[in-house]
Amino acid sequence: MMGSSWGRRVGNVRSFMGNLMGGLRGSSNLASWVVAGTLAYFLWVKPSRDLQKQQQERVALAGSDPYRYVEKRKPIPDPQETGLIYGNKKKSDSKTEE
Prior knowledge:
This protein is an all-alpha fold. The protein has a domain at about 25-65. The protein has three helices and no strands. The N and C termini lie far apart (about 115 Å). Keywords: Membrane, Transmembrane, Transmembrane helix.
């Protein structure tokens, strides 16, 4: 009697875990977990680790020389002077007066 209730409990736990994982069994279950784990790594884990590394590098750089100037953002070039935007470029105002 005791053995059958123990076996039933194990079966219930296995059934619960199978349902918890979406009801998939075998290789399809494993493949879905691999895909989900890979997506989670590249969408959440890797970006947060990269951000932590960047912050640590900034702290180390700032700590090495406190009077060193660090550019916070890239300067925005004048698009018409450099010709980055095509179309209406700055025209010279040299008109010949008669």
